[in-house]
Each structure stands twice: as C-alpha cells, then as structure tokens.
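Weekly structure sync, notes
Attendees: PL (lead), two postdocs, one rotation student
Agenda item 3: pending single-chain targets
PL asked that the sequence for the first pending target be pasted directly into the notes so everyone works from the same version. It is reproduced below exactly as submitted, 112 residues in total.
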Amino acid sequence: DGEFTLTRDMEDWIAPDWDDHTVPADAANQLLETLTERAAERLGIQQYPHEMEVATVTLYGFGGTPRDTVRIVRDPDSGRYFVENGDNVLRQMPAGVPLRLTPREFGLAADR
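Predicted structure, written out during the meeting:
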C-alpha cells in the first residue's frame, strides 16, 4: 500500500510523511517487538521467496544510521508471516501474530 516512515518522539510515534500525524503507539511498538524480540517458531534456510513479499522494514538508530532491514513474506496458503534479514534464513512467526504493515493499519489516510 505504499511506503511510509514512523519516527519515535519520546513516547509518541509519528509519521513525518503524513504531516507528523501521531499513530497508535501500541501498533508501532507491536511491530517493533515482533521484528526484534519475538522468537520464531521455525527456521528454514532457503532462497528468499520474492513473490510472497508483503513488506520491507528498515530500522534506524537514533543517529539516523540504518541498523537492519527486515523483509517480510506471507504464505498465501497458511497466512503465516516469515521474516528474513538478508541471511536467507526464513523465520516463521507463530500463528496469529498480527503484523500491521500498511499506512491504513496505522490510522493514516489512504487517499494520500
């Protein structure tokens, strides 16, 4: 659904590309936790399935330096998400893990 940026400002998360609109902190925190802390159910070493990619998330440090890029795929049959960060290790997320990945899912207007 497009590219967007979220920036943390103390306890708030804002979308600079949407006139600094504040997005729900729980949604941003949940995404960050899922990508950085949640353990995978399974690991699979395989070629990255580009055709199933639904999002790419780049995480930046406080100094504006990129720290990591995580690619996210979704299996159309099972609906499960897998994450990968350039090492060709697909990490299967537990069933039911919600991932908000679009501007609309963060409360940002779709008509931009």
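Discussion points:
- The first strand starts at residue 7 and ends at 9.
- The CA atoms of residues 10 and 52 lie 35 Å apart.
Action: rotation student to compare against the earlier draft before next sync.
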